[in-house]
Amino acid sequence: MNTAVSSWRTLENVEVECTHCGIRMTLQMGNRVRYYRCSGCHRWVSSTYTDVLRADAKVRTHPVKDTGAQDERFIEVKDRLERWLSAIEDQDPYQLLGVSPLDSAEKVRARYHALALERHPDRGGSVEKMRELNVAYERILRHQQHKRQDALTSGTVSASALPARSR
C-alpha cells in the first residue's frame, strides 16, 4: 500500500473538509486518535472512523501540500521588507524629532529647540547627534515649505501658509 493511501486512511497529513457546510475542519489532537471538528455545524470526525470517510459521511479529505519552499521564500521576503522598513524609519526626520507631520511649525520648532539644548556639543552632547538633528530639522523645514507652495499654487490656502499679520 503506498504512503498516500495509508496516510489518508489514518488521517495523517490530510486536511478534512466538512461537505455539509464546506468549511475546513480543525484538528483537535488526542493521544492516539486525531479528532477533527467543524466550526460551522459542530460535527466531529475521528481517525478511527476512516472507513466511514470513504462512504458518504459528510467529510472530504485533501492531501496537505508541501509548502516548505514557499515558506522559506516568504520568510526571506519578509526579512528583506523588515530591513527596508527599519532603514526608512531610521531616516524619518519626524521620528528623529519626535513630532508628527501634522504638527504645527511652532511645535516642531519648540521640539527642535529642546533637543538642540540636550544634544549640543557645548552642553555635553555629541557632534554627530547634533548634526543628525540639524539635518532632520532642515528636511522638515523644506517639507513644510513645499507644502505651503503646493497649497498656494493649488488655490487652497491654509491658515499656516499665510504670513503672520504685521503689527
From TrEMBL:
Segments of this protein annotated with the region Disordered: 145-167
InterPro entries, alphabetized: DnaJ_domain, J_dom_sf
UniProt xrefs under PROSITE patterns: DNAJ_2
Residue ranges of domain J in the record: 92-153
Name assigned to this protein: J domain-containing protein
